[in-house]
Amino acid sequence: MKCPYCGSDDSRVVDSRDTTDGVRRRRECISCQVRFTTYERLQPVNLYVIKKDLRQEEFNKEKLLTGIRKACEKRPLVNGAVEKLADDVETELFQMGKSAIPTSLIGDLVMLHLKKLDNIAYIRFASVYRDFTDITDLKQEVDTLLDHLVPPDGQLVLPINS
Description:
This protein has 5 helices and 6 strands; from the N terminus they run βββββααβααα. With about 160 residues, it is an alpha+beta fold. The strands form 2 sheets. It has a 3-stranded antiparallel beta sheet, with no helix packed on it. Helix 1 (about 60-70) crosses helix 4, helix 3 (about 105-115) packs antiparallel against helix 4 (about 120-130) and helix 4 (about 120-130) packs antiparallel against helix 5. The longest helix is centred in the middle third of the chain and has 15 residues, at about 80-95.
């Protein structure tokens, strides 16, 4: 590690501590005796997304968050629920160990998590993701959801009058 003050390559580790995303080290330069802090973080492998037209682009968590936020807009969700959902999806994608993942798989993962989180957000996301062409497709998705209705955490189930 190069000293940021004198440029010397000789330093020793004085203290080392784990942090949430890596390791924090206090170092002391052998040449000038100045102490400085370094952080070591795991550099994740680049993950690429295979688009519908077979183009590939680098995975962008912000795009994922934007889509989830739109689906969850004005829903009574716990603070941080959207970010946690995006983190969980991102973690699952990296755990797959693949360098390129189709957008369809990402969309399916998001829908799976949204279904557990909020039924309305799930339907909103599905309407865009599945590109419903008419109201019949939407009704079919709602009917499927109602047939397997398990209320998301903290949500009440209202009786349905047929």
